[in-house]
Design a protein that fits this description.
This protein is an alpha/beta fold. Helix content is 34%, strand content 21%. The chain is globular and about 70 Å long. The protein binds adenosine-5'-triphosphate, iron/sulfur cluster (SF4) and magnesium ion (MG). Magnesium ion binds next to α1. Iron/sulfur cluster binds next to loops.
């Protein structure tokens, strides 16, 4: 009889192990670890503009090489994959970038865009029916197949981008701000689409976003990045209900402030990350001497991993005491710095 405890656990689908990525002398990502299991729903990656989220996504996709650390696909270092494994990595891990940034070739019709990455050469009929199926999967009318990107709405373009990723029967979607260019109602529809596609196709997702509501809906686990480092990780619900890093708290508490910024907000300056000690200290209401002297390492606090010297205090301090100034609050949400 097989003892369940003796069945070896499958390695995660994709993982970053302590990766560091630099652009010239600038270290954009430092010591970041993220694990994404197969078919287990979403992992969120949250953080303000410039915190290094896209750089992590590009490293996970093998588009840039970390200067330290390892990216593993099904347990293997992606730099040493053989031809067969590399081709299944390319098919199974699909990017879904935000509409804009030339995500779609402006000269390609929808049907060409959707089948762009498919290497096999199916017959015309098979191809047409596959395109029709993929468009139906993402909630688009098949009549749009012959349109060019500029003849579509932003929401329709984002659905085409998702259909193109699905064409390769992926196991993991790496979604970089998939809804941030869209208005609120379209955002909600795309989020619902991702949720149903995830369940239908047993997909896992790495979701990069500034939108905490979307992370809460799609991701069981989340990581919060600040200045190139993960500052807090854990179950998304716990991060939202009992954040233990002052920055996570600020992100969470910033949401309801959007409607009512006081006039004084404009005179308060956004503070850049500090380059020694804790990078968040210039903005942190809980900062003390140790925060200037020593960079906090990630450590376990209850269900989270947190990089903060005063995490226990941050968890138990009332919201108003850890909320940054309103300009920072707006920055945290919009991602503009
Ligand atoms: N190709 C590049 N060359 C030099 N610096 C870069 C390059 N790409 C990104 N950076 C810098 O690296 C840092 C992280 O950038 P990244 O795009 O990963 O941030 P992000 O969290 O995705 O931001 P956003 O929310 O605005 O998309 C930023 O300071 C950015 O200016
Ligand atoms: S280590 Fe210090 S400065 Fe950094 S977040 Fe914690 S309390 Fe604030
Ligand atoms: Mg980005």
């Amino acid at each position: 009889m097989i003892n369940e405890n003796e069945i070896p656990l499958a390695p995660p689908l994709l993982s970053a192990e302590r990766i560091t990525v630099s652009y010239g002398k600038f270290q954009a990502v430092s010591d970041v670890s993220i694990t994404i299991a197969a078919g287990r729903g979403g992992v969120g990656l949250i953080g303000e503009s410039g915190s290094g989220k896209t750089t992590v996504a590009r490293a996970l996709l093998g588009l840039i090489h970390p200067h330290a650390g390892t990216i593993r696909y099904r347990g293997q270092d992606i730099t040493s994959l053989n031809r067969v494994d590399r081709s299944s990595f390319r098919a199974e891990v699909q990017p879904v970038f935000q509409d804009g940034n030339e995500a779609l070739d402006p000269r390609m019709r929808v049907q060409q865009s959707v089948m762009e990455g498919v290497k096999s050469r199916p017959s015309r009929e098979t191809r047409a029916s596959r395109v029709a199926q993929l468009l139906a999967d993402v909630g688009l009318d098949g009549k749009l197949a012959t349109r060019l990107p500029h003849e579509l709405s932003g929401g329709q373009r984002q659905r085409v981008i998702i259909a193109r990723a699905l064409a390769l029967s992926p196991k993991l979607l790496i979604l970089d701000e998939p809804t941030s260019a869209l208005d609120v109602t379209v955002q909600a529809r795309i989020t619902a689409l991702l949720e149903s596609l995830g369940a239908e196709h047993d997909l896992s997702m790495l979701l990069i976003t500034h939108n905490l509501a979307i992370v809460q809906q799609l991701c069981a686990t989340s990581h919060v990045m600040f200045a190139g480092r993960i500052v807090e990780s854990g179950p998304t619900t716990t991060l939202m209900t009992s954040p233990a890093h002052p920055y996570t708290r600020a992100l969470r508490d910033a949401v309801p402030q959007l409607g009512g910024l006081p006039p004084a907000a404009s005179s308060q300056m956004w503070q850049p990350p500090a380059d020694s000690g804790c990078a968040f200290r210039a903005r942190c209401p809980l900062a003390t001497e140790i925060c200037s002297a020593q960079r906090p390492e990630l450590r376990a606090v209850d269900k989270q991993m947190v990089a903060c010297h005063h995490a226990e205090k941050a968890r138990s301090t009332p919201a108003s005491a850890t909320t940054p100034n309103p300009v920072t609050a707006l920055t945290l949400i919009s991602g503009d710095s």
